[in-house]
Design brief:
This protein has helices at 2-28, 31-46, 58-63, 70-95, 107-158, 162-183, 197-201, 207-224, 230-255, 260-285, 289-310, 323-338. It is 77% helix and 0% strand. 28% of the residues are buried. The two termini are 52 Å apart.
Amino acid sequence: MNTAKIKMNELEEGGRRLLFVCKLLYVILPATDFLLYSEKIIFVVLSEFMRAYNTKHFIKILFSLHKSDTLKILFPSMILVGLYSWGIQYLEVGYFHLTAKSGISNVGMIHSLLGFVLSLLLVFRTNTAYDRWWEGRKLWGKLVNDTRNFAIKINTILGDNRQDAEQVSRYLKYFPHFLAKHLSKESTRLALDEDYSEIEKSLKNHGPSEIIILLSHKLNQLKKEGKISEIEMLYLDTQLSGFLEVCGGCERIKNTPIPYSYSSFIKKFIILYVFALPIAYVITIGLFMIPLTVFVYYVLMSLELIAEEIEDPFNNDENDIPMETIAQNIEKNVHQIMSKK
């Protein structure tokens, strides 16, 4: 609970800083320069929450520690595992004076078989979690392409009718921002390049769907006025369906977590497997079994924590999909497309 509050405070502070800088830029810069500079400021602020790195800097990655690093998260429990291993070593070797010929050494055979099963479960767990993350990223990539295509078509169709084109573009610019907010209730509402409060006031229930409804009503109005033909309306309507398909796909990922029983079972399996390690091998390996047990615990539990973090890619965590950054890019692209006559 405290961690969530700290994270929320960090996001709110970043949002306040961003709002202040954007307002300052809005006062001192022309409108064309404001869009360019505000996007750069937004990227800098968001970089505090989204981890950006160069995959070729192997040594730097190896020794870097960040907020979501599993070593920092697991370090207290690793100390407890080390103390547990030392206690087992003391009992078996120092107190009971067990040797390699003792029957307890046969536990290692069962332990080896369980290790194979556990490795299969962890592979399936991490693959499933990454598939969810990658599917979410593909959906947002589809939203980028669909928005660009829609903006190009509507800009070409309306031509010199800039008033209607501007109203449609506002809906297009706002949709990805509200979708990001809809998917992540903890996300900070960042300052946008335009004031969308008028649109937001009219959204009461399912925001993304209501924005598409408003956009559909506007297109139907243009069709009745003869500004859009039947054929043009047909392929514009197909694009609108694509927006809701993206929203529905993201909601499916967000609202369908990995089954609790499966996640809970893997955690219990890892703990039991690690606790059995010193019992089975401390007689033959000795004190070296203590760091070895800690290392095995770190590797196995890290895989589980990584899977937990990426299975829900819409929480604005460090390794989640940068939805607000993508939304800002969409807003910039629509602005550039609609500015061309």
